[in-house]
Amino acid sequence: MGQAKTGTGKTAAFLIPIFERLRPGASNTQALILAPTRELALQIYGEIERLGASLGFSACALYGGVSYDPQIKALSDGVDIIVGTPGRIMDHMRSHRLNLSSVKIAVLDEADRMLDLGFRKDIEYIIKHCPVERQTLLLSATIPDDIQKLARHFMQSPLKVWTSPGQLTVDSIEQSFLICERANKLPTLLKVLDVEKPQLAIIFCATKIGVKRLAEKLRRLGLNAQDIHGDLIQQKREKI
Q1: Cβ neighbour number for residue 22 with a 10 Å cutoff
Q2: Which of 21, 51, 139, 240 has its CA 20 to 30 A from that of 187?
């Protein structure tokens, strides 16, 4: 079980040992990495390609919102490392396209987010189809009680590596907050953007409709803003 602040290299911390321990080119999947979102699955897949391609490892990203065909072809050809979201991984398992019986290492990345998104039963289903004799890695920025309860189902006396339990972000991130009336939120946001002049910025909203409306308002004011949320098709999300 590993806990570390966001941006400290947790992905490399589990990928490099995978490359060290496994042999590329085996006929069955040897490593399984579960991620809470499509974007994180793609990010991890990119790191596998960057760090592991020259070593001969093959990988496949399994996530929803895109065609099944390339994923089915990759699975039929055989891949060493699978990374994906629980829903699409379960689809392939139930259709007998994905067999986890040879998995030696299972990774639950951003486990706290997966529980927040309601993936507990999906995770249990997937991990139960992996061999009992395996290594399980659970990584998260926070390790609350429900994460530890989940770990007890899948792990035997895990080694716990807590690097910064009291801090969730690296020291280079400056944090601040502003309190204002709802009617003043947009003018306040515009003032912040005017003062800070960020080259890139991410604005989080509570709802999808809130995201759409804010992006429209910013575009009408001449700002290059795009909205990204779960109602968009995956191709549009990736393009944005």
Answers
A1: 18
A2: 240
As a dihedral over the C-alpha atoms of residue 202, residue 208, residue 211, residue 216, rounded to 10 degrees, the angle is: 140
CA distances from 200 to 164, 196, 224, 226 (A): 28, 11, 10, 12
Check pLDDT > 70 for residue 77: yes
Cα 126 to Cα 32: distance, rounded to the nearest angstrom:
10
Tokens 């690296």 locate to: 170
Q: Which two tokens stand for residue 138?
A: 């659970």
Q: Tell me how far apart the alpha carbons of residues 87 and 23 are, in angstroms, rounded to a whole number.
A: 28
Please provide residue 204's backbone torsions phi and psi, each rounded to the nearest 5 degrees.
Answer: -95, 140
Structure tokens at 8: 């400290």
Top pLDDT among 32 and 64 is at 32
Give the pairing type, strands 2-3 and 81-84.
unpaired
Find, among 48, 54, 55, 102, the residue nearest to 78 by Cα: 102
d(CA 27, CA 191): 57
HSE value, Cβ hemisphere, 13 Å, CA-based, for 157: 0
CA atoms within 13 A on the CB side of 133: 1
Residue with tokens 């499509």: 38
Q: Which long-range contacts (CB under 8 A, 24 or more apart) does 191-198 make?
A: 193/223
Evaluate whether 180 touches 43 at the Cβ level (below 8 Å). Answer: no
Mapped onto helix, strand or coil, the DSSP state of residue 228 is: coil
- Contact between 201 and 214 under an 8 Å Cβ cutoff? The reply is no
Percentage of the chain beyond pLDDT 70 is: 97
